[in-house]
Amino acid sequence: MKITCHNGFAAAAFIAALSACAGEDMRSGAAAPEETQAEDTSAPGQQPATAPNPLRNVYFGDLHLHTRNSYDAYLFNVRATPDDAYIYAKGGTIKHAAGFDLSLDAGPLDFLAVTDHAEYLGVLQAIDTPGTEYSRAPYAEDLFSEDRGKIIAAFGHFVDSLLSGEIMPELSDMTATRSAWQDTVDSAERHNEPGVFTTFIGYEFTSLPEFRNLHRNVIFEGGDAPAAPFSALDSQNPEDLWRWLDQRRADGVEALAIPHNSNASDGTMFERTKWDGEPIDRAYAELRMRNEPLVEIIQTKGQSETMPLLSPNDEFAGFEVMDLYVGVNKEVTTFAGGYVRDALKRGLEIESEIGANPYKVGVVAGSDGHNAASPYEEDNYFANHGMLDWKPEFRGSVPPADYESWGAYYADGRAAPRTMGSGGLTGVWAKENTRTSIYAALRRKETFGTSGPRIRVRLFAGYDLNGVDLATDEGVRTAYEKGVPMGGNLIGKTGEAPQFIVIAMRDVHSAPLQRIQIVKGWTDEAGKSFEKIFDVACADGGAVDPETQLCPDNGATVDLQTCAFSQDKGDAEIKGAWTDPEFDPAQSAFYYARVLENPTCRWSTWDAIRAKVEPNPKLSQKIQERAYTSPIWFTPANAR
Amino acid sequence: MRAKFLYLSRIAREPLAQFMIAGAVLFLANSLINGSDEPSPAYAITISEGRVQQLAESYRLLSGRFPSEAELQALVDDFIQEEIAYREAVAMGLDADDTIVRRRMRQKLDFLIEDTAAGEEPTEEELKAWFEDHADLYRLPPRMSFRHVLASGDARSENAEQDATAFLTALQSGVEPERLGDASMLPEALPLTTQTGVAALFGEKFAANVFQGENEGWFGPVTSPFGAHAVLILSREAASPP
Predict the structure, then answer these.
(1) Model's pTM, two decimal places?
(2) Distance (Å) from the alpha carbon of A134 to chain B's nearest alpha carbon
(3) pLDDT in tens, B50-92
(4) Which of A438, A280, A303 is nearest to A359 (CA)?
(5) Torsion-angle region of residue A124: left (phi > 0), alpha (psi -120 to 50) or beta?
(6) Mean of pLDDT values over A335-361
(7) Which residues of chain B neighbour A456 with C-beta distances below 8 Å?
(8) Residue B230's CB: how many other CB atoms inside 10 A?
(9) Taking CB atoms and an 8 Å cutoff, what residues of chain A touch B104?
(10) B197 and chain A in contact, CB less than 8 A
(11) pLDDT confidence tier of residue A639, bands split at 50, 70 and 90
């Protein structure tokens, strides 16, 4: 067979029909959609629009979720889109990357923010699209190969890039990112239904210098968003993110940032110094508080409220403690500066030194689900990382295939699994379910976070709250008139001690409530901080012991063979009124409520029972789900 | 004439002529069956100026600058290699049964269909027909609005149902609901809400009870994880098309 090659420099007389057949898709850079239609959007259980409630309604939502637009989710084979995320949140059914159905058992959420990683947003999909420039990246083939080793090696490029904060030159074309960002914005607009379901445009700023987790989620108030998100490839320094947020605000685009996984920051999320090492000053405190009024206290990668080393007297502190770095198998060794309660205390200390508090943060929660969906329930758990953990054998609850038992597994010197849990939820008190109303609640910190169940809790502090019953409308009205809700500030009143009233209601799909506690933190005259926990209301008619400040054990149990829990223990609602027995009018303090359920089975136990194996001895078998409110800060009268 | 014929027939009997005729026939047959020896257009690879420009542009996007002469020549050569390999592979049938190729072909067809379809608006009749065929997808679920009076399980334990029955009697004889029952974070009344919405708050059992049956006036006791309730349906909305 003879072939004649016409050298291109001598222009050919005709354009060969070959050029069309060589597969050159000129949509270079644009993400080629694989699914073009959202699935059925008529989801059941939507609450109808109602008039604004001046006494405020509770709304539950997730402010931290990933779809295929995130570089890591795409590699976990997740192909679900932001549209799918909203369908799931509204009560519909979508597919997991492994092919099975996902849906919420307990009814739809009220709001959702899709927060894909801004770094390489949409890029993995572009790499996976033949004919694009991205697909010519040298490791493109390895990323999607069958060989796990190759995938890991190729993925390492992304990890290195995020570690260093340097964008990879071969992926520096921002076309795919801008396109995916526009897709995110459009999807949020499409699914926003004022009065019924609220969507927030958002993304994740994935800063991890030396693998220390300094991630933040950015949440936009309205439908206006900048052309591209400010990512950790622009700067790893959160102060630069805050300055960018200030500029956007000046342009008329309102947004805030919410840090998460301080538990994996190795003490660097809430430091006493700025990025440049100088001590925190007033300007820093104001910059931070203007842009970061909240913190995500619990999510799938553990909780960041506190841990036993920081709070040795807190019998419930050893809860979902994940003390490893994210992205590398390294242990956290510095806990102070990595937990919210400690940060709240630090904030008071710094305030006593410089007159400004950089850590006056309210509390929310989220999932960090990477499936465009997250489980929030222990008995309906499907993990959060696509193909990495869709099977119990992959997530430490059932021994992997080549081991007969956990005994054999550990005898072989294998490591214990990382503690991972279900998604958490944010609760807000707002007049109506709209972006403006819910965002305003975020801004004033009238928020709480839960470990997954939809526990509802109200907390107020004030003077003259005697006999106020938060179970009644008049009680709530009086509380708002005479006191401040969670997230609020109370100024000292000479000769009077503040009163606290609190009420909580269970989630019918989870367990009855066991107790409500108030966590107090304060500084003394020397500016040193302390903490103490007080049980303030107990289920089953229990009374708080004035010596120990604890509720009696209500004897609630859970059967670890069947997961049946006590039906006759615990209350559907608990309420209490409390004054601080150690109140000192000269001391700055914060108070937040922590509500605990009776014990139930943890997801890992459910997995083990269903697989008919022994549960992993290195994982907790029980869990006491909980809610944490934003604090109320007390400032002494005549304080500076 | 006869002389010509004789002449021809004498030639036809000549062995050399017979061989020449046979050869010509074979040659013709060969050329018909196997094609000529000259390269037919199917074996020509043409690199057009447009193609060269496209290769250069791709290079620029990747590396930030245009290729040098040597680099461009290398790109063109590489493209030719690719084209040869592609044609050989197709000729060998390597594109058949390849999942990636099939997926990609399907994707391209989907794009074509989308592009064409995007230009065509469905007619009213088509929309109506689709809607009728898929009425289930668009049907709004039934909704109820109701108020309730709670006998709290926390406060009353086993007496909750009995106490709820007592409330019921009082309500049915005209006592105002505001004066009865236990205060709770649960709303005293719900606006029109689907069964799932009611279940999210009160549990599945309560929701099922409220949604079934044709209860008029106060009825109960209906139990829930909160205790026992007397319930009054305020309004109903049947499953309806939008």
Answers:
(1) 0.82
(2) 8
(3) 889 888 888 777 666 788 888 888 889 888 988 998 888 888 8
(4) A280
(5) alpha
(6) 97
(7) 185
(8) 27
(9) 23, 130
(10) yes
(11) low
Higher pLDDT: B103 or A403? It is A403
d(CA A16, CA B83): 12
Cβ distance B194 to A45 less than 8 Å, yes or no, reads: yes
The DSSP bridge pattern shows strands A57-62 and A111-114 to be parallel
Whole-number pLDDT of residue B113: 82
Chain B residues touching A193 at Cβ < 8 A: none
Instruction: Work out the pLDDT band at A38, boundaries 50, 70, 90.
Output: very low
Q: Is A100 on the interface with B (CB under 8 A)?
A: no
Looking at the predicted structure, is the pLDDT value of residue B23 above 50? yes
Q: Give CA–CA dist B108/A25, Å, rounded.
A: 9
Helices (H) and strands (E) in chain B, counts: 11, 5
Residue A464: pLDDT band with limits 50, 70, 90: very high
Q: How far apart are CA A455 and CA A453, in angstroms?
A: 6
How far apart (Å, rounded) are the C-alpha atoms in residues A331 and A170? 33
Cβ-based contacts of B134 with chain A (< 8 Å): none
Tokens of A119: 């770094």
Nearest CA in chain A to B108: A25
**Can you give the pLDDT at residue A587?**
96
* The pairing of beta strand A456-462 with beta strand B189-194: unpaired
- CA B197 – CA A429 distance, rounded (Å): 19
B192 CA: distance to closest CA in chain A (Å): 7
C-alpha A486/C-alpha A630 separation (Å) is: 5
Collect all residues of chain B within an 8 Å Cβ-Cβ radius of residue A512.
Answer: 225
Q: Does A193 touch chain B (CB under 8 A)?
A: no
Element (H, E) at A340: helix A340-354
Tell me if residue A235 falls in helix, strand or coil: coil
Determine the residue among B48, B99, B209 to mutate to test chain A binding: the one whose Cβ has the most chain A Cβ atoms within 10 Å. Answer: B48
- HEC string for A509-537: CCCCEEEEEEEEEEECCCCCEEEEEEEEE
Q: Is B184 on the interface with A (CB under 8 A)?
A: yes
Q: Across all residues in chain A, what is the average pLDDT?
A: 91
